[in-house]
Amino acid sequence: MNDLDVKRINSLVSEPELKQIGHKIISGERVSPAEGILLFEKGSLSWLGALANYVREKMHGDKTYFNRNFHIEPTNICVFSCNFCSYSKLYAHKEEGWELTIDQMLDIVRKYDGQPVTEVHIVGGVHPKLTLAFFAELLSAIKTYRPNLHIKGFTPVELDYMFRKAKVSVEDGMKLLQNAGLDSLPGGGAEIFSPEIREKICADKVDGNGWLYIHKVAHQLGMHSNATMLYGHIENYGHRIDHMEQLRNLQDETGGFNTFIPLKFRNKDNEMSYLPESSIVEDMKMYAVARLYMDNFPHLKAYWPMLGRNNAQLSLSFGVNDIDGTIDDSTKIYSMAGSEEQNPSMSTSQLVQLIRQVKRHPVERDTLYQEIRDYSLSV
Ligand code: V47
Ligand code: SF4
After folding, report:
1. Same domain for 123 and 10?
2. What pTM was estimated for this model as a whole?
3. CA distances from 207 to 116, 147, 232 (A)
4. What is the pLDDT of residue 2?
5. Distance from the alpha carbon of residue 226 to the mean position of ligand 1, in angstroms
6. How many domains does the chain have?
7. 81 Cβ below 6 A of ligand 2
């Protein structure tokens, strides 16, 4: 620990209890749940930012990762009715939704022929007629067509439904999908684990324990995964810390998570539109506390299509070291929920520029954070 760092950063707060937490963080000690709540409640933005940036730079220096990926959304028809969702169409209104065949999804993969994309992210609604066998066939078809493309797909919400319908255990279902070509799991569907909040915003889908168990089994099979948290709606700081605590505990056990992704609730066109959105100050606090609390998560990601480009740049001073990639412009879930980004795609050079503008060091990565190209070495 560097005493000068402690002095410099802790001069930004006066409360002894906060100074003590700052001291702990700089000496590499873990923040407790009660201390996590104090960070949210009492920490000034400048102090939290300085601490989170200290941790970020200790872990990654100026490196800011991105990857080249594209999305496939098999369907937006969903049996569930999460109140925050602006995207899904109930099966009863299926004529308003879409549902892609395996061939149509392969056409999307073919669009990227010859392009240096490394990952496809498959995520969508939970269609009552799409089966485990259908998704296994989709995975095999993609792998046969482009074997080196990493497939990151399906949230525990989709998986839990698929496995229950097929009457297979989580273990058997995950093995089957892994053998068919599934490489890792994205972070979606986590929302907020607390049952009292889940009951009010997404009562009918897999619960927090179910979400965690599916990721645990994936990790035990050697797969990596991400984790999200939907914040800025009806939850309080205690619920956020409880969510992060449960993720941190599972990570201690398995080490299988790569990235934590806080997702800001957007309020356009959904059942929770009456709620105001969190302020940018609150968003930056969220990133900073996440960086400080999730000490065993190697990476913290800002999902720029949801947060907006300028705020994603800002987040790089509040603990974030990864910006989600150069994604395809057919991704609908976020623009439908009110993100400023109505066309959430950026070319690699635009993304590199965005990172360089805030004097960080762009590095292209693959899904598992192996470095593909260091952009500090080129113009
Ligand atoms: O679980 C839905 C969120 C998530 C809204 O792993 C909303 O690399 C805000 O998890 N306001 C799915 N958020 C997307 C997701 C994700 C995205 C990017 C990268 C990765 C990754 C994962 O989208 C859902 C839900 O929490 N969401 N509606 C809304 N109105
Ligand atoms: Fe369905 Fe996912 Fe939307 Fe919930 S968030 S209604 S599970 S598509």
Report:
1. no
2. 0.95
3. 37, 34, 19
4. 73
5. 11
6. 2
7. yes
